[in-house]
Specification:
The structure is a homodimer. The termini of chain A are far apart. By secondary structure, chain A is mainly α. Chain A contains nine helices and no strands. The first copy, chain A, binds a DNA duplex through helix 3.
Chain lengths: 189, 189
DNA sequence: ACGATCCTTGACCGATCGGTCAAAATGCCT
DNA sequence: AGGCATTTTGACCGATCGGTCAAGGATCGT
């Protein structure tokens, strides 16, 4: 029963991410993780370090899986299509129902003083990535003539980043409305 | 040193609200509240009940102070003015710096299963109040001819409620941009 | 085959958690 | 003045917290 790793690390990380995502850092106990992963206490500590390190690894997975797909949706220079793709992603995950309703990043920001310093700065940076991706997309759109030359790309990016933050945990039906309005209002800009 | 209340309940509630607001329900210990209020453990329990009850009282204060002012901003039938007032409130509290950056309601929703059932439903209801206030305001605006007759008030309300949720914790400068865009885009609807 | 190395297991640690309680102290009512 | 009700106080409770560790078993290199 020992000598070599008895578990798939990525599966374990996925289980940990779900727990942290759903219950938050403070609300998650090591025993919660033991139950969710099927591993024993000591194995968890041996593999990852301490609770903060476990959270960091789970957070990175969260960013890679959830966040990265959002950034990818904002490719291209057509703002209407890009925003539609972004909202479609949100809608899909809202309909799935499988995932928790909160946002791990917002929880991470609240408790970042209890994390290693590099993770804290990394978290802050990640929180701004969506705005940057939106900004870059809007600038491409303006250069391509799909957006008025006078459009304030920075302000638009900040605005739609706020919308994206605000829809986390929203039910599918209201989310459809929000997506429709979000795209429709863009036409005016 | 006893026999009659030695403290001002509203002051104590205000202190408790700040702690819960900043650290969240799970992240707040009774000792935190003891330190913040200056009261002793037993006095807190004698006055309020248990931790969940303390949180409920603090949450109600939060709703009355913070939430109610937002609802009040949405009076009248001029959507541009109403939204401007709403954003101005957010901007003011962002500049104050005195208040924590998170949203107590979102924390409350996460841990509502640990609260008395009535508080849980009350919390869910409160979370929808802003949307309802926006909806009513947009309907008044449409009736007054300040909004296109074809405007989807429900969808607009849901959209701006998402924006309002999304700006919590945002710095003043980006918030100004968001407010400007939010009002400007409305003109198009 | 054998020692070095690594992983697993479950008991265990001190600290802190939310919550309780009896005793002391005070104010109120008659 | 005197009994009653209420608040304050600080010690105390069992449960749970995050974290550690020695013992035992399995694998690998030689």
């Amino acid at each position: 029963m020992a000598g070599t790793r008895q578990f798939d690390e990525s599966q374990v990380l996925d289980a940990m991410m779900r727990v942290f995502w759903e219950k938050g850092f403070e609300g998650t106990s090591i025993d919660d993780l033991v139950r969710a992963t099927g591993l024993q206490r000591g194995s968890l500590y041996n593999a990852f370090g301490d609770k903060a390190a476990m959270f960091c690894r789970a957070l990175r997975l969260y960013q890679d899986e959830v966040h990265a797909s959002h950034l990818h949706a904002l490719r291209g220079d057509d703002p209407r299509e890009a925003l539609t793709r972004l909202f479609q992603l949100k809608l899909k995950s809202a309909r799935d129902g499988g995932q928790p309703q909160g946002c791990m990043l917002s929880d991470a920001r609240r408790i970042c003083h209890r994390l290693p310093t590099n993770a804290a700065t990394e978290t802050k940076a990640a929180a701004g990535e969506l705005e940057e991706a939106l900004f870059a997309m809007f600038e491409r759109a303006r250069a391509a003539g799909r957006l008025a030359a006078t459009a304030d790309c920075r302000a638009l990016a900040r605005f739609y980043a706020a919308v994206a933050r605000g829809v986390t945990g929203t039910d599918p039906e209201p989310l459809e409305d929000i997506a429709r309005i979000g795209v429709a209002l863009l036409e005016a800009a």
